[in-house]
Amino acid sequence: MITRLLVANRGEIARRVFRSCRLAGISPVAVFSDPDADAPFVAEADHAVRLPGAAPSETYLRIDALIAAARATGADAVHPGYGFLSENAGFARAVLAAGLTWVGPSPESIEAMGSKVAAKKRVAADGVPVLAELDPETVTEDDLPVLIKASAGGGGRGMRIVRELSTLREEVAAARREAESAFGDGTVFCEPLLEGARHVEVQILADSHGTVWALGERECSIQRRHQKIVEETPSPAVTPEIRTKLFDAAVAAARSISYVGAGTVEFLLSARGTIHFLEVNTRLQVEHPVTECVYGIDLVRWQLAIAEGAQLPADHPTPNGHAIEVRLYAEDPSLDWRPQSGVLHRFALSDVDGEFTVPREYGLRLDSGVEDGSVVGVHYDPMLAKVIAWGPDRAAAARRLSAALASAKIHGVLTNRDLLVNVLRSKEFLAGDTDTGFLDRVGLDQLAKPLVSDVDRGALVAAIALAQGRQSRFPLGWRNIPSQPQKTVFEQAEVTYRFDRDGKLVEPAGIELVRATEHEVVLDVDGVRQRYEVARYGDTVYVGPLALTLVPRFPDPTDKIAEGATVAPMPGTVVRVSVQAGETVAAGAELLVLEAMKMEHRVVAAAGGTVAEVLVQAGQQVEAGAVLAVVEGE
């Protein structure tokens, strides 16, 4: 019987496991790195142990420190969550050797599926269809395009598409670095790139008594940088015949390694309806909430019960309705998904029906690792939350989810919120026309567009300007000469407004001011009354989905950056410097590579010219805004 559980993870997944612990009467224990000291999951635990340091290699990947934390707190079991050491057989063995209960599959099962190369050979022997494995050293032109994959781990780390043989060596090296950084194992391999295919996976749950459940399939095709951002169940493309094949193959894969616990068997589904095994994730998946909603179960609670020896009923629960999940990231989709960091001043979704649990009826679920005031750092994955809508059908779930995201208050860091809403409302998504190339096929020019239209934007900007005017020591609209308009200048727009002698707003035309305070503006726009909530943090002002930055009236001349200077877009570590002083480069040429949030990011020249200076070297830590190199124009 488990009485105290250490969760060897952080953020949203730690909070998710804590929720099931509370329901089961189990005391939760947290471990935390220095950047996570004030994170919500730490405050929610009954006991918490500091892991000195910041990088995963110093903290969440240290097996000895995690075992010591379990002993220090009197924990009798360990849950690995997902990511970090969740699929590390050595960690599972260390937990068991310490006399603790391991909440997960056996070390032998993890080992059998830990290498994607060995896993494919094993399940192929049981008749499960697989894609051919290619040695990166022997790939030829005839093999292209190929996908480089990390043999260990997941989450898109260590994955690269190669279409030209000349780039293969460089991409393999980058994939190995990412895999080593994220999982401590830099082994990679290649497989044919099956274009136009869907990513479909099956949730399995198995006990130690021989029962294996296949709990539906999840469609996870919409991905960026090979990492899922939209997941749903059931898949709009899976027919009853394909579903039977998927379930049979998933159960066969689980039985081939005597699997126990929760896991996921991943497949590619071709446009012709053929399935190809990818891997078995021997852990809980990020997207498990959609399965929980549709099947009405608590997968973490079952993980704990199975670890205690419980037996699954012979018949698994039946599905009900449709669920869609999106991953809300602190990132800029328009700048190659560049991760963002900073203070999250406000994070609020309205009408949430359940947090970390299945709503009582169809509704909205939120699984979040952040709250108002949380700091989004650079050391870990930039996911802020998972938002899940469960409805009677796919259209209802998509509508509820897009509406919740569109009205969410997310202040402080840029996110992929607008993109997610545009995806959910796109005709391609609503028609079920999704595959792993969805974002490229539909185009970020459409999907990453801001949610506000030109008409909305004008009213929103006016509302912000009027709210800022409310903060003045003079009455709103006061002027020595009433005929002269007032002006508020933002980096993104400029707005002028003017009141007559009676205090009536006469410019811009068509807008009537009903009332204005520092935090709220009500406008009548062409006969339609609209209310706007306004929030300001420093020089950044938010109203609805729009954020604008005020231009200082008297800018500091020392803030000006030298012409041609390239600055760090985020804090990170310089992985590679690709140019040297005196070299001629074209616009878009790679200057260097930064590693941040467990991913590599290319820093390129904004314009062509000659490299005048390179101010950093490989291995150097840099802060956001630091000058990295200077390129003098031609």
Short description:
The protein is α+β, with helices and mostly antiparallel strands.
3D structure, described in words:
It contains 16 helices and 39 strands. The longest helix is centred in the middle third of the chain and has 17 residues, at 240-256. Mean pLDDT is 91; it is low at 473-479. A 9-stranded mixed beta sheet has the order 13-12-9-10-11-14-22-20-19, sandwiched between helices. A 5-stranded parallel beta sheet has the order 3-2-1-4-5. Helix 4 runs antiparallel to helix 5. The protein has 634 residues and is of the alpha+beta class. It starts with a strand and ends with a strand. The protein is 25% helix and 32% strand. It is globular and about 85 Å long.
Q: How does the SSE layout of this entry go?
A:
Blueprint: E1 4-7, H1 11-24, E2 27-32, H2 40-44, E3 47-50, H3 63-73, E4 77-79, H4 89-97, E5 101-102, H5 107-114, H6 116-125, E6 146-150, E7 160-162, H7 168-183, E8 188-192, E9 198-206, E10 212-224, E11 227-233, H8 240-256, E12 261-269, E13 275-281, H9 288-295, H10 299-307, E14 322-329, E15 331-332, E16 338-339, E17 342-344, E18 346-348, E19 354-355, E20 363-368, E21 374-376, E22 383-391, H11 394-406, E23 409-411, H12 417-425, H13 427-430, H14 438-442, H15 444-447, H16 454-470, E24 486-489, E25 494-499, E26 505-507, E27 511-516, E28 520-525, E29 528-537, E30 540-543, E31 546-549, E32 565-567, E33 572-577, E34 584-585, E35 590-596, E36 599-604, E37 609-614, E38 621-622, E39 627-633
Parallel strand pairs: 1-2, 1-4, 2-3, 4-5, 19-20
Antiparallel strand pairs: 6-7, 6-8, 9-10, 9-12, 10-11, 11-14, 12-13, 14-22, 15-16, 17-21, 18-23, 20-22, 24-25, 25-26, 27-28, 28-29, 29-30, 30-31, 32-39, 33-35, 33-38, 34-37, 35-36, 37-39
Helix pairs in contact: 4-5, 11-12
